[in-house]
Design goal:
The protein has about 130 residues and is an alpha/beta fold. The chain has five helices and five strands. The protein has a five-stranded parallel β-sheet, with helices on both faces. Helix 3 links the parallel strand 3 and strand 4. The longest helix is centred in the last third of the chain and has 19 residues.
Length: about 130
């Protein structure tokens, strides 16, 4: 049996973080929630993850900087940006730092689950 998919979520807004964690855990994912970009980098150094979901605007280290460090630490690890910043320049910046997907807030939890599932399916084949 395949091991449980581990997802690292970095979100400083507690209500959104809990919603994302709950939504993904209901789909059977193992979700680790942290409150800033540096905590995400630290968590990645302690254990493997299959996908990282990063808010853009966070204290200590923003999502863009965290994505860059994560890509350096774990090249090819899928990153999804989650942000209230919907301007084209922000979305392009997300993709330029290594995000495979950029989801704008407010978001539909079902859409989040679908996009995460597609990315996991697409990237899991490369790991196995």
């Amino acid at each position: 049996m395949a091991s449980k998919i581990r997802i690292l979520v970095a979100e400083d807004e507690q209500d959104i973080g809990r919603l994302v964690k709950y939504t993904l855990e209901r789909q059977g994912y193992d979700v680790h929630l942290v409150g800033d970009g540096q905590a995400a980098v630290d968590a990645l150094e302690r254990g493997p993850f299959d996908l990282v979901l990063l808010d853009v605007m966070m204290p200590v280290m923003d999502g863009y900087a965290a994505a860059g460090k994560i890509s350096d630490l774990e090249p090819g690890l899928p990153i999804v940006m989650l942000s209230a910043k919907a301007q084209k320049v922000e979305v392009e910046k997300g993709y330029s730092v290594g995000a495979l997907e950029y989801i704008c807030k407010p978001f539909n939890p079902r859409e989040l689950v679908e996009k995460v599932g597609v990315i996991i399916d697409r990237t899991r084949g490369r790991k196995d």
